Amino acid sequence: MEEEMAEQETILIVDDEESSRQLIKRKRLSEGYRCREAGGAAQALDELQTGAVGLVLLDIKMPGKSGIQLLPEIKAGYPDTVVVMATAITDTSTAVHCMRQGAYDYVTKPFNLAEVALSVERALEKRRLELENRDYQQHLEERVSEQAEKIRQSFLNSMTALAYALEAKDKYTSGHSERVAATSAAIATELGLPQEDIEKVRLAGQIHDIGKIGVRESVLNKPGRLTDEEFQHIKCHCELGERIIIPIVEDREILLMVRHHHERYDGAGYPDGLTGAKMPLSASILAVAEGYAEMVHGEAESGAPLWNRGARILAVSDTYDAMTSERPYRKAMSAETACAEIERGKGTQFDPEVADAFLRMRKRVSAAD
Ligand SMILES: [Fe+2]
C-alpha cells in the first residue's frame, strides 16, 4: 500500500544544471517516484500545469527567475505541492528564509543522495497526512450536514403527520393550515424578516391549530353558532397545541407562536390577553417552566420578539383565511370584503404593521392576477 502510494507521487526537479537533474533523476527513478524535470522557472511552471506534482525540488540559484522568486508562485498556485529547496552549502541562511516562505525543507549541494532521499520522503509523508486529514474533515462536514438534513426532514414529517391527524378530525381545517402557513410566510417576507424566521413562521402556521385535536368533534364540526361553553372549550386549543408539540418542537418561538395565535392587539384575545402596547409576558407552560417570561421581558428594549410578531402574523392570516372560507352557517366573504375587515381591525384586533404588510402583499397579488 505504502509503495503503491509512493509510486504515484510525481517529483519535479527544477535545476539549471543538467548534471544535477540527472543525478537526482536516476536516484529518484530507482526509488520508484515518477520524475519530471525543468531547466528553469518558466519550464517548471509549465510542468506544474500539466498535472499533479507532489513535490518540487527547487534549486535556489538559477539564471533568470531564481528559486526564491519562484517559490511564492508555486505556493500560491499549487498549495498542495511541497517544496524542498536545493542550495549551496555556503548559503543556508537563504534556505532558511525560503522555509519561512513556505518551503518544507532544504538540501545542500553538492547533493548527498541519502540526505535528499530522506528529505523528499519526509516532505511527501507530511503532504500525504495533510491531504488525508483534509479529506477526512471534508467528509466529516458532509456527513454531519447529511445527518442534520435527515433530522430536519424527519421533524417536518412529524409536523405534516400532526397536520393530517387534525384534518382527519376537523373537515374545515383541510387546506386551512397550508394556506395560513403560506400567507404567514408571505407576510413575514413582506416585513423583511430573515429567511430563518420566515421558515419558523411558516411552520407555526402549518401547526397553529393542532390543539384542535383535543376539541370535541361535535363542537369542531357544529353547523351553527357555538354556545358559551362550547366557545370556552374551543379556546383551549391554543394551550393544548403548545402542550402537544412541546416534545417535538424544540424551538420556543414556534411553540409560543402556536400558543398566542388568537391574541389580539388590544389585549382582548386569548389565552393570555397579551396586548400590543406593552411588551407581553407570556404565561405559557414554557415561560412558567423556564422563566422565559423574564427573558422575553428583558428583550423589550430591542422590540417585539419573533414569537410575538409571528403570533400577530398568524392572527392576520388565520382570520383572513377563516373569513374567505365557506362555513355551514355563513357564506365565504370575498377577498375585498375580508381585506376591508383586516383594515378595520388595525390597532384593535391586529398589529397595524402586520396588517399593513398583509394588505400591501394582497394588493400586489390581486394586481398580478
Ligand atoms: Fe386557531
Overview of the molecule:
- It is rod-shaped and about 105 Å long.
- It has a 5-stranded parallel sheet, sandwiched between helices.
- 60% of the residues lie in helices and 7% in strands.
- It has helices at 2-8, 18-31, 41-50, 67-77, 92-100, 113-169, 176-190, 195-207, 217-220, 228-235, 237-245, 252-259, 285-290, 292-298, 306-323, 335-344, 352-368, and strands spanning 10-14, 34-38, 55-59, 82-88, 105-109.
- It is α/β, with parallel strands linked by helices.
- It binds fe (ii) ion.
- Fe (ii) ion is lined by residues 208-209, 237, 261-262, 318.
Brief summary of the model shown:
The protein is α/β, with parallel strands linked by helices and 369 residues long. Helix content is 60%, strand content 7%.
Question: What's the arrangement of secondary structure elements?
Answer:
Elements: H1 2-8, E1 10-14, H2 18-31, E2 34-38, H3 41-50, E3 55-59, H4 67-77, E4 82-88, H5 92-100, E5 105-109, H6 113-169, H7 176-190, H8 195-207, H9 217-220, H10 228-235, H11 237-245, H12 252-259, H13 285-290, H14 292-298, H15 306-323, H16 335-344, H17 352-368
Parallel strand pairs: 1-2, 1-3, 3-4, 4-5
Bound molecules: fe (ii) ion.
The site of fe (ii) ion has 6 residues, from loops.
